[in-house]
Design goal:
Layout: H1 5-15, E1 21-27, E2 31-36, E3 41-46, H2 50-62, E4 74-78, E5 88-92, E6 97-98, H3 99-102, H4 108-126, E7 134-135, H5 147-164, H6 170-183, E8 192-194, E9 203-208, E10 211-217, E11 224-226, H7 228-238, H8 245-256, H9 268-288, H10 292-308
Antiparallel strand pairs: 1-2, 2-3, 3-5, 4-5, 6-9, 7-11, 8-11, 9-10
Helix pairs in contact: 4-8, 5-6, 5-9, 7-9, 9-10
């Protein structure tokens, strides 16, 4: 159930006293397009949890100096949901539609160009440094200054939860832990701001006379301090549909041209450990949605990655 006109008016009254609501539209992804009486247009993003809203607000504050990126401007926030009973962020206008809705209308050449631009934008996001590895706004037992320690703590938590759900047996869990403890030696660097939600439903695009462009990146509720490789594997996983092939190629080329650091580039062997971590997370998500077929598919991918790394 969406927010009512009265609730939207209450949000505006709290954030922008004196402003009045002229019109609003409920959009996919718990977003609202809002028009004020004076003509200004804003966007409202509603979140499922206080943690996600607080995380998104923290990420956008880190990004506030990047005025030339297609990232929303934070106008106001209520992560606790005190105003209308739901956590939200009030943002500058976000035009465009999710690329998931528009991909059938976009040719391969334009998809490739969009992917290159997305790679460039994501690289710029990753140039921002976080204070620690882990959550931006919530308690995180594994958070700290050491990337290897953070990954091992995250791995242990995911293996434990998968074991409790019957998604991973003890032998498989022990093999994963053993490989990471022996072989996972990431090159040290400061924790990057990682989007954590790169996917076709969060990438907004619009069409103009010169072709398609990226209009905005929405969500940000899964942002954290970590390695750029986490964003790479999430994007490649969420766009594994053949329709997005040119987008994926463009993203890899666009990102890799921005950095000479091989350990940050879109390279399969470097990404493999992060793919394994993602599969553990995807198995849990599929279980929560009641999708045993998806759980098994993800488990098969995890086994393939373990063979790829000669575990």
């Amino acid at each position: 159930m969406g927010l009512t006109t009265e609730q939207l008016a209450a949000i505006l009254n709290r954030a922008l006293p004196g402003e009045r609501l002229r019109d609003s539209r409920h959009l996919p992804g718990d977003r609202y397009a809002i028009e004020l009486a004076g003509g200004e247009r804003l966007a409202l993003q509603v979140f499922e949890s206080t943690e996600a809203a607080a995380t998104a607000a923290a990420a956008l504050r880190l990004l506030r100096g990047e005025v030339d990126l297609p990232v929303p401007t934070l106008r106001a926030s209520d992560p606790a949901g005190e105003t209308v009973g739901a956590p939200y962020l009030l943002l500058g206008e976000l035009s465009g539609d999710p690329i998931a809705q528009e991909v059938a209308r976009i040719g391969d050449e334009q998809l490739y160009k969009l992917g290159r631009r997305l790679g460039e934008v994501t690289y710029r996001v990753h140039r921002l440094v976080c204070q620690r590895y882990g959550s931006l706004a919530a308690e995180d037992p594994g958070a700290g200054d050491d990337v290897r320690g953070y990954v091992l703590a995250r791995l242990a938590g995911d293996i434990r939860r998968c074991g409790e759900l019957g998604l991973l047996d003890r032998r498989g869990g022990a093999e994963l832990v053993g490989w990471f403890e022996r072989s996972f030696q990431p090159i040290g660097r400061l924790p990057a701001l990682v989007y954590g939600g790169l996917g076709p439903h969060n990438i907004l695009v619009r069409r103009a006379e010169r072709g398609w462009s990226i209009a905005g990146l929405t969500g940000w509720g899964q942002a954290l301090g970590w390695s750029p490789l986490w964003d790479h594997v999430i994007l490649l996983d969420s766009t594994d549909d053949a329709r997005f092939f040119s987008l994926r190629v463009g993203y890899g080329n666009g990102y890799d041209e921005q950095t000479s650091r091989a350990y940050e580039q879109v390279r399969e062997h470097a990404m493999a450990p992060y793919r394994m971590l993602l599969m553990l997370r995807r198995m849990q998500e599929a279980y929560a949605r009641g999708r045993p077929d998806e759980c098994e598919r993800r488990r098969g991918v995890l086994r393939g990655l373990m063979r790829f790394l000669d575990m």
